[in-house]
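Box 3.1 — From sequence to structure: Winged helix-turn-helix transcriptional regulator
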Amino acid sequence: MHAFDVLGDPVRRRMLELLAEGEQPAGRLAAVVHEEFGISQPGASQHLRVLRENGFARVRAEGNRRLYAVDTAALREVDAWLAGFRRFWDQRLDALATELARGARTRPTTAGEGPAASTEEESCRTWSRRSSPPTGTSSGGGRGTPN
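Predicted structure (token representation):
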């Protein structure tokens, strides 16, 4: 089975997400997928088998429990395949990082700092005073004058 066929199933992806948190007993994995997907315990076992047989998970026995963990072998293969496509998003992320750094250099870090913020705030207050009617009057005149 191809790696993307394995990862194409939402139940198996969820199981991998859980395994990414650390080693998990099969019973807990089965309980979560039962709760979230309505999958029976035998169905969950089948999904775990697919993950194991395709190199995404490994299992070890501890007494009568089976503990599953992520096996990175298949994930490395997926990562290697994706490497040919990374340039599509790496360039955009690099450009975003540049813009964020540029913005951090030109914009004050605290509100009210620097001349631009004071000028902007003063402009807003001036405009607000000109366009607001005095307290206790109606705004029917449109220019802040009482009717």
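Summary of the box: The longest helix spans residues 86-106.
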